[in-house]
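Quick one, probably user error.
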């Protein structure tokens, strides 16, 4: 027994040392990545700024939330502002709700306002519901798309008809966003009962032709959509939790692999 302990203790110390070094390396890698993303958000190239926002969202790194907010206040391009607002919504920190609310109130781009409505729903569902009810049915189709997306993201199907209407008759960009939202939130509901059209499975083909939108509307008829949403939401939540965990594990693995490759 004594000899075995004499062998295992150094091995335990060695293992702890390796894990500690790996943890420090991962921390160093995260700090470097954050520094790179901060620089990317200030880059002259708008595509680089947009990609930085998407990357922050993918990593769900709240340490960069202030950087997103600061950039949003000075960003001249609507497509980059949309990416910044999207990232704030994914981070879901309630401290950013005021900034997002100001964006949905005053941004000159309907595309950005639609993203801000969805971000508001993700950040603070209760406050989103208050704002959405107060807004009623907005005059601008972009705002209607944004509110509808927000409701659907919370498992409330009252936004389905609005999205179907815009998907069938809106401007091309509005139809594209509406179809994307329907594919994300309506599709799982209809697939659960075998009613999602095969023609809509090719998600890269957007916007959908009006006849396909009409077919989706027809397949929704007669269904208790809210009951379907209530039944599937729990499983969707569990799936999202698993995906977030897998993403964290993958990032940790990639950071450690990058450190080891430099040795």
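Nope, works fine. Designed sequence:
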């Amino acid at each position: 027994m004594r000899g075995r302990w004499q062998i295992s203790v150094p091995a335990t110390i060695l293992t702890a040392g390796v894990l500690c070094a790996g943890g420090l390396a991962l921390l160093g890698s995260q700090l470097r990545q954050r520094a790179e993303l901060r620089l990317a958000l200030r880059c002259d190239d708008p595509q680089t700024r947009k990609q930085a926002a998407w990357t922050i969202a993918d990593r769900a790194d709240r340490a960069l939330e202030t950087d997103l907010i600061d950039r949003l206040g000075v960003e001249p391009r609507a497509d980059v502002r949309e990416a910044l607002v999207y990232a704030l919504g994914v981070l879901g920190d309630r401290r950013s709700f005021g900034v997002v609310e100001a964006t949905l109130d005053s941004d000159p781009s309907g595309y950005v306002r639609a993203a801000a409505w969805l971000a508001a729903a993700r950040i603070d569902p209760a406050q989103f519901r208050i704002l959405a009810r107060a807004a009623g049915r907005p005059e601008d189709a972009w705002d209607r798309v944004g509110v509808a997306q927000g409701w659907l993201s919370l498992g409330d199907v009252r936004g389905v008809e609005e999205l179907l209407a815009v998907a069938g008759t809106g401007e091309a960009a509005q139809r594209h966003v509406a179809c994307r939202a329907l594919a994300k939130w309506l599709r799982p509901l209809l697939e659960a009962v075998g009613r999602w059209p095969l023609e809509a499975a090719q998600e890269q083909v957007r916007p959908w032709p009006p006849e396909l939108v009409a077919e989706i509307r027809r397949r929704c008829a007669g269904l208790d959509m809210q009951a379907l949403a209530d039944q599937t939401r729990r499983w969707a939540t569990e799936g999202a939790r698993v995906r977030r965990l897998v993403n964290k594990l993958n990032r940790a693995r990639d950071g450690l692999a990058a450190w080891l490759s430099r040795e």
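The two ends are 37 Å apart (CA to CA).
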